[in-house]
Amino acid sequence: MEKMFARSVEDAAKLIDLTEDDRKLFERVEAACDELVLPEFEKYVERKFDDQIPVIIKKHRLMGIPIAKKYGGEGARPLVHALALERFGQVGLGVITYVDVHQALGSLTVQEWGNDEQKQRYLTKAATGDVVFAYALTEPEAGSDPSSLKSTFKKEHDGSYLVSGSKYLISNGSVANKLIVFAYPEGQTKGMTAFLVDSNASGFSVEMRMEEKMGLFTSDTSLLTLDEVRVPKEDVLGEEGRGLPVAYSALLNGRLGIASGCLGVMEDCINQVRERVTSRTQFGKPIGKHQLIQRHLATMVANLESSRWLVYQVAVKKGEYDNNRSNLEMRTEVDRASAVAKYVASRAAYNTADAAVQCFGGFGYSILSPVTKHLLDTRVARIYEGTDEIMELKIASTVLGRDYEAYK
Ligand SMILES: Cc1cc2nc3c(=O)[nH]c(=O)nc-3n(C[C@H](O)[C@H](O)[C@H](O)COP(=O)(O)OP(=O)(O)OC[C@H]3O[C@@H](n4cnc5c(N)ncnc54)[C@H](O)[C@@H]3O)c2cc1C
Fold it and tell me: Among the four 39, 153, 244, 324, which has the fewest Cβ within 10 Å?
């Protein structure tokens, strides 16, 4: 049966004017997704990180989708990036997590905050996949409230820094070779700074790969330890003491990426359910002819459509802001909008995946079904890069004003 939501080059062309470069990009995204489906399925069943994700994404030259052309990337505008991530989302959130962390939390953050030398040094390699990024903010004692993190740094006579601490639940943590790490000056609770840390540096170790997760098996999640890891002064990202704005701007991009991926998840759920309910017979007819199954399908489509236009609109707004970086009002609006997009799309994707599992019946409870992974994986989209509750507080405070920020 032909898929309804294939998000092919032609589908994308119906939505936006595609340049020749966009077309070529979508063709490569399409080819990569076709190759990713089988290893993703196999690794999911084994509950292992899918080591083919980096290989296939790199092979199709898709590591640098949003990186500027002058650094060797595709220079894709946010809407094109969102559409590409939407297509990856059809394969699953394991792929999205790898790509979003490398591209939105990593590459775009260096592009926005790095100096010319850092961009030359790291973005050119990030575009080819020779540099893979991770984003290490969360710690055992600091999640929703990153200002309470315990990692520290001290400055040496030669201007370099020694960074120490523990970073928890870090996606790409054991496969990245460059990590954006956040720490406070030793003995202080102000002056958080972002560092570009090399995973080969002495004192850096992957304490463990966290494989006891409830889902998202094909994504690498690790616990990291930094024991006086030396970071040269050239590898401070942004100004010393300005780590929190760096962390938050990364999340603005990251949330839009997760929201885009969630669209793809919903599309795959609908495609899979359509196939299942037209082939599975109970009570003498395909289950798709039972009206209550049709209600599930209607809800799934409504979830997708109500999220999709929101996500596209936010991506367009992000593009406008990218051309007006000094406009702080615009920044606040895009930040709010990307939180809304992630909040709405991740919940919609979770509910859609739940409905898809229901339509699959008992087989839906097996990880061998094509939709079960979406239910297990989308649960984390409501937690990482800001929980539902933190998104709610953030959105409400934009209505009530800064005096009402609940977690100040
Ligand atoms: C699979 C996975 C991958 C991840 N990848 C990364 C990564 O790559 N990099 C990284 O830095 N982090 C990563 N994280 C961490 C993630 O961002 C955090 O788990 C998340 O921000 C929540 O923090 P926490 O787990 O400490 O929960 P807590 O902050 O302890 O929150 C627990 C509960 O309390 C609620 N809560 C907290 N404060 C408030 C408040 N003020 N008002 C109302 N409710 C509140 C939360 O919403 C939540 O429901 C990942 C997490 C997972 C599970």
Answer: 324
Whole-number pLDDT of residue 170:
98
Task: Kindly report, residue by residue over 297-312, the tens digit of the pLDDT.
Answer: 999 999 999 999 999 9
Mean pLDDT, residues 275-293 taken together: 98
Please say if 385 is a catalytic residue. Answer: yes
Average pLDDT over residues 127-151: 97
Cβ of 136 closer than 6 Å to ligand 1, yes or no, is yes
Three-state SS string over the chain comes to CCCCCCCCHHHHHHHCCCCHHHHHHHHHHHHHHHHHHHHHHHHHHHCCCCCHHHHHHHHCCCCCCCCCHHHCCCCCCHHHHHHHHHHHHHHCHHHHHHHHHHHHHHHHHHHHHCCHHHHHHHHHHHHHCCCCEEEECCECCECCCHHHCCCEEEECCCCCEEEEEEEEEEECCCCCCEEEEEEEECCCCCCCEEEEEECCCCCEEEEEECCCCCCCCCCCEEEEEEEEEEECHHHEECCCCCHHHHHHHHHHHHHHHHHHHHHHHHHHHHHHHHHHHHHCEECCEEHHHCHHHHHHHHHHHHHHHHHHHHHHHHHHHHHHHHCCCCCHHHHHHHHHHHHHHHHHHHHHHHHHHHHHHHHHHHHHHCCCCCCHHHHHHHHHHCCCCCCHHHHHHHHHHHHHCHHHCCCC
Judge whether residue 181 has pLDDT over 80. yes
Which residue has the least CA distance to atom 7 on ligand 1? 170
Mean pLDDT of the chain: 96
Per-residue pLDDT for 359 more than 90? yes
171 touches ligand 1 (CB under 6 Å) = yes
- Per-residue pLDDT, averaged over 102-112, amounts to 98
Whether 256 lines ligand 1, by a CB cut-off of 6 Å, is no
